[in-house]
Design a protein that fits this description.
The protein is an all-alpha fold. It has one domain (about 10-90). It has helices at about 10-15, 25-45, 50-75, 80-90. The relative contact order is 0.16.
């Protein structure tokens, strides 16, 4: 296995993704999915679309957690648990 101390060029070969995930993109999507989830929940409550609340809450929360796992994985590219969180929760 390659030595991680050699620099960013080796991170792609060590990463489970095949490349190191970009942290600022992950942060952007965590923020966007969080905001959109809150906005859709507020719309569902205001419109009294009670059937929509579980769908919006589950999907928005799973996307937010998935992108959070990917963000965390950008700091630790070899952690299989973080990779699996992202794979399972970001559909």
């Amino acid at each position: 296995m390659a030595d991680i101390a050699n620099g960013p060029a080796d991170l792609g070969s060590l990463s489970l993704y095949g490349y190191p995930p970009t942290a600022w993109i992950c942060k952007l999507f965590v923020v966007l999915y969080s905001l959109v989830t809150v906005f859709h929940l507020a719309q569902a409550i205001q419109s009294r679309l009670w059937w929509m609340i579980p769908t919006v809450a589950i999907c928005g929360l799973s996307e937010t957690i998935g992108w959070s796992g990917r963000l965390w994985s950008s700091n630790n590219v070899q952690d299989m648990n973080l990779f699996l969180i992202q794979c399972v929760l970001c559909w």
